[in-house]
Amino acid sequence: MATKKTSGLGRGFSTLIPDNFDSSLLTDEQNRIQKLLISDIKPGKQQPRSEFNETQLKELASSIKQHGILQPLIVRVDGTTYYIVAGERRWRAAQLAGMTHVPAIVRSMEELEELELALVENVQREDLSPLDQALSIYRLVNQFNLSLETVAKRLGKAVPTVGNIVRLLNLPEDAQTALRDGVISEGHARAVLALKDKPDKQAELLKLIIANKWTVRQAEQFVVATRKGAQSESAKQQLATTTPATQKLSQRIGAPVSIRRTAKGGKLEIAFTSNKELDELVKKLSSD
Q1: CATH number for the domain including 59?
Q2: pTM
Q3: Which pLDDT tens digit goes with each residue over 170-222?
Q4: CB crowding 211-249: b at 16 or more within 10 Å, else e
Q5: I want to staple 257 with a disulfide (CB 3.0 to 4.6 A). Which of 20, 182, 191, 246 is the partner?
Q6: 99 and 35 assigned to the same domain
Q7: Which residue among 88, 114, 116, 121 is the active-site one?
């Protein structure tokens, strides 16, 4: 039977985090899980994650109180201090849970290996934010001279996907803030980025997305209209959810009318609050 080839880091991610924690199976001293004092552990210098959700940490702390830490941290030792390579969320949650010790696998690795492992764990397990991903990938490419192809392979992503993530660092500061805070999505951010040669239009598009709660499709349509040379007012009118025509129809039938844009044309939407109101609308629309 053929041996299954591991992926990711050279020796495979599974060799760093064993599936079976029976100490009798961990004969290699390097792989043995140890109990370390939480006070002896510090966050890793290469941690790509910059923010931790407090609610999720509290939920994890509650789970740890009940079940313990099911997966050990991975740390590297420097003197008498251990630095986290993977598992900072578990370490933080363990402190909230009042634990004094945590299980850990101690490793000695170079800075590149440390950053790679931390990035892989976060991207694959915790949905690292797009900007945090971009910053980490940027470091791998520019500080460690890795190609995008190499980084993409180690992260299990397509090269164009990795390239698009890194390009998010070219967003204006206000757009980066909106993306980090969840005000806009990654799709919105890419639409803004598409107008990088028109900073004033980027700012305008960002404001329109936030103020009008535009979909990604609407943002992309604004980009297309702008590139075709349409004036701002004309572009906004093409994407407006309400127009003089919808307002006129709304007054006639006595219900809110709006436009939902699609790839080809759009749809008229009429809002109602009850079945009775729906029946009345149908009668009005059916009458000559």
Answers
A1: 3.90.1530.30
A2: 0.52
A3: 999 999 999 988 899 999 999 999 998 899 999 999 999 998 888 898 898 88
A4: eeebbbebbbbbbebbeeeeeeeebeeebebeeeebeeb
A5: 246
A6: yes
A7: 88
